Amino acid sequence: MGAQAPHVLAAMKGLVDPALRGYVDGLHPKMREISRFHFGWDDGAGSGKAVRPALAVLGARAVGASGDEPAVVDAACAVEFIHNFSLLHDDIMDKDRTRRHRPTAWTVYGTDQALLAGCALHTLAFELLARHGAAAALDALARSVQVLIAGQSDDLYLADRQDVTLDQCLEMEAGKTASLLSASASLGAIAWYGDALGQDARAKTDLLAEYGHHLGMAFQMVDDLLGIWGEQDRTGKPVAADLRARKRSAPVVAALASGTREGERLGALLAAPGELSEEDVALAAKLVEESGGRAWARERADVHTSEALARLDRLAPDAAAFGDLTEVTRFLLSREW
């Protein structure tokens, strides 16, 4: 990260984390062990900034909740469990051996057990919402997970194709990343409203969902830039890891679709058989930049950031809630590339 995490994230983590740990400790012993390892709770590694549950609580506060209501906290736990279900499975599909500078769960416990742990967290998320009879919240999360799965499926399908269009890439990234951030921003509010989700409430939760979508798209653009130009000590991945894996991220696809000579050279380089040498990877990064892919992704990140903040303006929460959401937004997009 390029900036220190705001205090509001630490406060939200302090609110939600005890509930997360309590629910995980109620799982089957092996599922509990794997999940606790994945979250980094037993070796002092920690479990990240817990951005998604923070958004769920802050979104609820933005529409008038105090944020510590059981339905809100459980909604926050639900989005965090879904996020980590997806990480456990993604690490297997992508064959990633480290996450946050630690071994991934499947490398320690095996593929089968890690898959089951992901399924346990997925199921637990819906159990929590069902306890409150929150039909609208269950529906919102279910739709988000379906879009997330579709995005991951598209990512796997497009990985080996040479003819990926920019529209296909953006739809995939909207599914993989923006769908869950959209749900995160709105689910706490939806759960808090419960059966009182009338027209005015729906309009407010829709604005929160749109805010989360644009935040997610901006976040993914920054992540794509870091995947090529991010430093290893910040990202936990080798420099230009996405290019080394020939990943069709948005800057790469924008470069390939640029119609420039550099874009054509990039296409030929990525289509060549065999592993890319370090010189090839460095050249590919140079070609992405020279063909405009880097500038295009930066511009799209700025556009989506403006759209996200515009939704908060239209929602018009009180000053404290607006300030907290704005601070978290700026922090998430402050990562250096």
Question: What does it look like?
Answer:
- The structure is a single chain.
- Helix 3 (51-62) packs across helix 8, helix 7 (135-158) packs antiparallel against helix 8 (166-193) and helix 15 packs antiparallel against helix 16.
- The model has no long low-confidence stretch (mean pLDDT 93).
- The N and C termini lie close together (10 Å).
- The protein has one domain: Orthogonal Bundle (Farnesyl Diphosphate Synthase).
- It is globular and about 55 Å long.
- The longest helix is centred in the middle third of the chain and has 31 residues, at 199-229.
- The protein is built from 16 helices and two strands.
- With 337 residues, the protein is an all-alpha fold.
- The relative contact order is 0.12.
- The protein has helices spanning 7-24, 29-39, 51-62, 70-93, 105-109, 111-130, 135-158, 166-193, 199-229, 232-235, 241-244, 250-256, 261-271, 278-290, 293-315, 319-332, and strands at residues 98-99, 102-103.
- Strands 1-2 form a two-stranded antiparallel sheet.
* Widest beta sheet: strand line-up: 1-2
Gross morphology? globular
**How would you name the CATH homologous superfamily?**
Farnesyl Diphosphate Synthase
User: What is the oligomer described by this structure?
Assistant: single chain
Largest sheet: 2 strands, antiparallel
Which percent range fits the helix content? over 70%
Can you tell me the number of structural domains? 1
Mean pLDDT: 93
Structural class: mainly alpha
CA-atom Rg in angstroms: 20 Å
